[in-house]
Amino acid sequence: MPATSEMSIGRETQFKSDGNAKGVSSKGSSSERDHPTINVAANERILSLLGGVALTLLGLRRRTTFGAILAAAGGSMAYRGSTGHCPIYAALGTNSASKMPSSEEFNDHGVHVEQAVSILKPAEELYAFWRKFENLPRFMHHLKSVKVTDAKHSHWVAKAPAGREVEWDAEIINDEPNKLIAWRSLENADVHSTGSVRFVEAPIGRGTEVRVTLEYLPPAGQIGRWIAKLFGEEPDQQVREDLRHFKQFMEAGEIATTKGQPAAR
Amino acid sequence: MKALCWHGKLDVRVDNVPDPKILNPRDAILKITTTAICGSDLHLYDGFIPTMEAGDILGHEFMGEVVEIGSEVKNLKKGDRVVVPFTIACGNCFFCKRDLWSCCDNSNPNAWMLEKAYGYSGSGLFGFSHMMGGYAGGQAEYVRVPFADTGPLKIPDGLPDEKVVFLTDIFPTGYMAAENCNIQPGDTVAVWGCGPVGQFAIRSAYMLGASRVFAIDSVPERLKLAEAGKATGINMDQVDSIFDALKELTGGRGPDACIDAVGLEAHGMSFDALYDDAKAAVYLATDKAHALRQAIQCCRKGGTVSIPGVYGGLVDKFPMGAAFGKGLTLKMGQTNCHKYLAPLLERIQKGDIDPSFIITHQFNLSDAVEGYRIFKKKQDNCIKVILKPN
Lengths: 265, 390
Ligand SMILES: NC(=O)c1ccc[n+]([C@@H]2O[C@H](COP(=O)([O-])OP(=O)(O)OC[C@H]3O[C@@H](n4cnc5c(N)ncnc54)[C@H](O)[C@@H]3O)[C@@H](O)[C@H]2O)c1
Ligand SMILES: [Zn+2]
Ligand SMILES: [Zn+2]
Prior knowledge:
The structure holds 2 protein chains of 2 kinds. By secondary structure, chain A is an alpha+beta fold. In chain A, about 30% of the residues lie in helices and about 25% in strands. Chain A has helices at about 1-5, 35-40, 45-50, 55, 65-75, 85-90, 105-110, 125-130, 220-230, 235-250, and strands at about 110-120, 145-150, 155-160, 165-175, 180-185, 190-200, 210-215. A 7-stranded antiparallel β-sheet of chain A has the order 1-7-6-5-4-3-2. In chain A, a hairpin with a 4-residue loop joins β2 and β3 (about 155-160). Chain B is α/β, with parallel strands linked by helices. Chain B is built from 13 helices and 18 strands. In chain B, strands 3, 5, 6, 9, 10, 17 and 18 form a 7-stranded mixed β-sheet that branches. In chain B, α11 (about 320-325) links the parallel β15 and β16 (about 330). Residues about 265-285 of chain B have low confidence and may be disordered. The interface of A and B includes residues 207 and 262 of A. Nicotinamide-adenine-dinucleotide (NAD) binds near residues 173, 197, 263 and 308 of chain B.
């Protein structure tokens, strides 16, 4: 995905502690990921370490294949790991680091995406829309539904091929009104994932910079490696399209489309 | 309904296609009363614009009557007569708010295609390839207009279609080209290309205060029409050097502003290159940017080169040294059409201009194929073709 990596100015500059760092950064393919190193790095980069479920949801082209593999793997996916240390959870005010995968495992199969989009709306409005997780399927195309079960918990259903579904429970691990939402899948989920969205006020007249980080870890072993491979080139584009749709929804009130228009074919 | 569809290079046909439907809350459906063929359509006709698909409906210059509106369209009602800007824009984004309507962030469903080629994508356009959004065009009986609460302008009764239909594109395009020249009292302006865009650029330059306008082309009837607009015609086939001619005509200084209203047919523009690799060169034939190179060469020091003519990929042998050495300003882009609709309608109403002067041919939509043919070949002194669906 050269178009995105070209835009990268590097993670170091991305999430300054004042939250005002400029620039966009994205990293998609597992092969080039440097997560473990960053893992040890300073708190100012913590957000880049958050991840998300969303990759199971954010599929574009590859989602079908991925979904098929997920479906094939079925409920029996053995989730190994959860031994890695995880400063991010601590940094985000939780202490459940034990469920994070090991660095080694992450290197093999994980997907990490960071994307940013500028939206000409106040942070409060964007936060409020996103915080109602039920809204996410309106712009995250691979999501079928999200049901909020209590103040912290929600149940996520993603589409999979042949009418199958992939489901998991997630919890909110950080929530700063109008600034930040972070979530992750619960321990028993088949697909380990975390996500965060941060709303940073842009200079006057420029609305809000929305920064999303998503991390996805399929189960260990061969299947996981396949998934990582399959996702290698796509996650950035998938998240970019979903964020574009979020922006269109918030700014234009609808998502631009031509599906259903006439043509002579 | 009937619609003019693209099927390949030099192959357009009037086909029967389904009627358009409302797809989004801010949509409207128009019954088209008048539509036109543009020089930009010739780039499609000639097969030089990538990401066309057989069966695409062409046409971005059209007007008509509102026959259906989406739930969020509050400013229009059935029966309203409107002109529609060819750029599709949401009205709410950073760019729309700055009057950069052709840069709208939210109207191109295929923005990713252009992002790979250009870094960022402009707005969607009607009937102008999938990388520009893939929207069905208006050389048809009906058309779907997205963001209908923002783009279309209501036309008062008493103004015939022929006077206002060019608000959709070529009048604003010629006007913006002249506006981009930042014309100061006494300025001279040279215009390359006396097609419809050039003709409106000439007249707009005078409206904005130019003292003299020079018009360059090789087609006699087009030069004649330019002269009817008070320009001094220069037939490029009959002078040894356009540079020398312009130098002499401007007392040795060169025109204060030069407008390239020719554009470039994107020969050799590779679909694959555009699509697959942002870094890959998208090569264009080197001699095709001739007018642009000339405009840069001829422009006076510190002057402005304004480029309404369409370019798609890379231009080889671009005279950067001349542009830099003379401290030129270059301005270009798809027209921010929305910005000009109301003020230019006012000019039409005041009688500053009657845009129907440009029309040389009218066809029924069923005969649109013939319209393309003669416009392309400049047969029968053709300068501008309008089409009537009924
Ligand atoms: N920027 C925009 O938004 C916008 C809008 C509409 C049209 N356009 C573009 O403007 C250009 C002109 O449009 P048009 O409808 O007038 O097209 P057109 O094809 O009718 O006119 C082009 C004219 O240029 C002349 N010409 C060709 N080579 C020349 C040269 N080297 N020097 C001088 N004249 C030359 C041709 O004889 C012709 O008369 C096209 O590229 C079109 O795509 C741009
Ligand atoms: Zn046009
Ligand atoms: Zn916009």
